[in-house]
Amino acid sequence: GIMFREKIPIKGLAVTFNDVVLLPGKATLDPISIDTSTKVSRSVSINIPLVSSPMDTVTEDALAIALARLGGVGVIHRNMTINDEVNAVKAVKDASPYPVIPFSLNPLMSSEEAMAELRRLNLDTLPIVDEGRVIGYIRRSRLLTGGRLIELAEKPVMAPVGSSGDELVKIMRENGTDTVALVDKDNVFIGIASYYDLNYKPPFKPATDGEGRLIVGAAVSPFDVERAVKVSKYADFLVVDVAHVDNENALTALAKLVKETPVDVIVGNLGTYDGAVDAITRVDPIGGFRVGIASGSICSTGVVTGVAAPTLWAVAQVADAALDYGLGSTPIIADGGIREPGDVVKAMAAGAWAAMMGRVFAQATESPSPIIRVGNRLYKYYRGMASEGARARRFAMDRYAPKVKNIEEGVEGLVPYRGDLANIVREFVGGIQAALGYIGASNTAEARVKGRFMIVTESGRGEVEPHDLVLNI
Ligand code: XMP
Q1: Distance 290 CA to ligand 1 centre (A)
Q2: Among 299, 383, 391, 448, which one carries the catalytic annotation?
Q3: pLDDT tens digits, the chain, 473 residues: what are they?
Q4: What is the DSSP string of 186-209?
Q5: Closest Cα to atom 15, ligand 1: which residue?
Q6: Residues comprising the binding site for NAD(+)?
Q7: CA of 189 to the centre of ligand 1 (A)
Q8: Which residues form the CBS domain (predicted)?
Q9: Ranges assigned E (strand) in 221-300
């Protein structure tokens, strides 16, 4: 049967995000209460539908930790040794699901100094820590009288490292504090958790596994069983990382690889109905589909080779193949070319469960690339994994890495620096919730059913963008 392909009303036209608009539908909920949770693979759930690309200027442990804390998930790139990838994955699994910050007061501080510190950190309460022990707790109101810090202290507010965010919020409420001191099993102070970081309001609940640890994915090549076996000891799922998986050798290797790992393997990249059928008939089980060929912002495949399966169109193709072959509950990840929150919801309307982004996340502080100043503007370096720079790193690291192509299919460049990931993600998710609201969907699954497209004309596109204003005021 055809479901998703028919939604795109012109046959033979490989439409992209900007070629369509979503039609409004009857809204039943306020955007803020729309459920953004979804699955990234058959058995792994996340709370916001955003996945970061496995690219060496996008996802290492720092970004994966930050994204999972916000409810999404990062996929650690594979342009490093197996050992380094295992360690990056482990770092995410070992990280606390909320930030733990090493702020405390020293018993020798005067009350004025303590007050200045609390003001600087914008906190109401902090522990007093002496030689690694929490010896008391200070709140601003107690400092007003002046005097020795230790005489103004209250009893410590503490919890073991590894406590859940909900447990910490409960302790803070009981004690009327905005922080809790976290201590290890020997009662040594590790840092504080703050109420402001425990943003447990949906949808930004951390994406965690059954044991409360952050969720993380890891990229693998279909031919690297050793890597797959080693990283899947720790990673929640694997993501096959090749530009075009509908390839005889890749599918043969993959059919074996999926039998060797205990976790879901997301297969990609795929771009067509037939390609998806090839993967489905050769690889079992399939943990998810990674879809889109040549749409990435740093991608030059389409230019160099003339071959492309634009993400929106490709998603509809693969979604129908999955439905036709009984894999209707196997998640599809739209990958490449996503610029706006609305693009994520367009991808959902075409059959996707989540969106993978490289450029948008490269712009965050937490991405593993330097901030670069040009004039008085700040940028981050971002490159395709098939670019000259990324390929050079691969060959430097592993001189036996097989060279199967002699051309670059990716470019390197700068993207505007946008600050902390949390700001970027909150903005994006707000836009996704608003878009879901407009199309009358109360969750991501409904978006796949209720989302309807119209092709937009050139003049229509002009009209839906801000227009006819004097912009330079
Ligand atoms: P965005 O648009 O989010 O796309 O920056 C990220 C996706 O682009 C793919 N990718 C590449 N594609 N040559 C390509 O043809 C490359 O060098 C390259 N590097 C990454 C990848 O699917 C990623 O998630």
Answers
A1: 12
A2: 299
A3: 679 998 887 888 899 999 999 999 998 888 889 999 999 999 999 999 999 999 999 999 999 999 999 999 999 999 999 999 999 999 999 999 998 999 999 999 999 999 999 999 999 999 999 999 999 999 999 998 888 898 999 999 999 998 888 899 999 999 999 999 999 999 999 999 999 888 667 788 899 999 889 999 999 999 999 999 999 999 999 999 999 999 999 999 999 999 999 999 999 999 999 999 999 999 999 999 999 999 999 998 888 889 999 999 999 999 999 999 999 999 999 999 999 999 999 999 999 999 999 999 999 999 999 999 999 999 999 999 999 999 888 766 655 555 667 778 899 999 999 999 999 999 999 999 999 999 999 999 999 999 999 999 989 888 888 888 876 66
A4: T--EEEEEETTT---STT----B-
A5: 299
A6: 241-243
A7: 43
A8: 95-154
A9: 237-240, 264-270, 288-291
Peptide bond into 285 cis (omega under 30): yes
Q: What residue ranges line ligand 1, CB within 6 angstroms?
A: 53, 55, 243, 269, 294, 296-299, 301, 335-338, 356-359, 384-387, 409-410
Q: Which residues of 256-272 are buried (b: 16+ CB within 10 A; e: fewer)?
A: ebbeebebbbbbbbbbb
DSSP string for 364-410: BTTSSS-EEEETTEEEEEEE-TTSHHHHHHHHHH-TT-----SS--B
Pocket mutation for ligand 1, best pick of 299, 393, 408 (most atoms within 8 Å of C-beta) = 299
Quote the ipTM score. Answer: 0.99
For residue 295, the ligand 1 atom closest to its alpha carbon is 2
Distance between Cα 26 and ligand 1 center (Å): 35
